[in-house]
User: What shape does this take?
Amino acid sequence: MLFGYERVMLGMVERDPAVLRAFERISDFTYDYMSRLLEAGRGQVDVAYYGEDLGTQNGPRISLGLYRELIQPLWERHIRLAKQHGCFVMQHCCGSARAFYPEFVKMGVDVHDTVQAEAAGMDPDEIKREFGDRLSFHGGISIQRVLQTGSVEDVAAEVCRMVRALGRGGGYILAPTHWIQSGTPVDNVVAMYDVAREYSRDFYRRGR
Assistant: This one.
């Protein structure tokens, strides 16, 4: 919003001092804001929620090397702050985020929001198998496809599929992949929550 998308992307590659300084200033402001918020919470804040968009539908938006150099150091102190106040950390990242999961784990992220299964590399069974012992997952029910254009039966089938894939052993918070869009059939939204409640109850009762 400050520079435009193109200048920010080129600025990271070219190490544009103005762009990098803006990153630092935004990080500093957010850090001070969260410090005051968590102090005011007096230990009653359960989850610190942060967000960025590292992924596109087809792959990462930036390279892992660029992330490690320019972005990750800014996040590390925020996550340390949240942990000092006893918070779980939920990190939002749309799209293809799998390449960054090892870095999320190293930093202490507890929950990845949002699992967008239609994006490249985001197969629910695979990410659960590879990272499910270290990360919890939030999302999974596509606002682009099944919720928007599917039938109630399609939504029910997708809810069950996500619970089976991401819910094994716990660690899954079923939710839409982002804000539910205008024009989404209300019956689909209701079905998502009704089926999630009923199917999950049976799924975990069976000890899956």
Observations:
- The longest strand covers residues 136-141.
- The mean pLDDT is 95.
- Strands lie at 47-51, 88-92, 111-115, 136-141, 172-176.
- Helices lie at 5-14, 17-41, 64-84, 101-107, 124-131, 146-149, 152-166, 186-205.
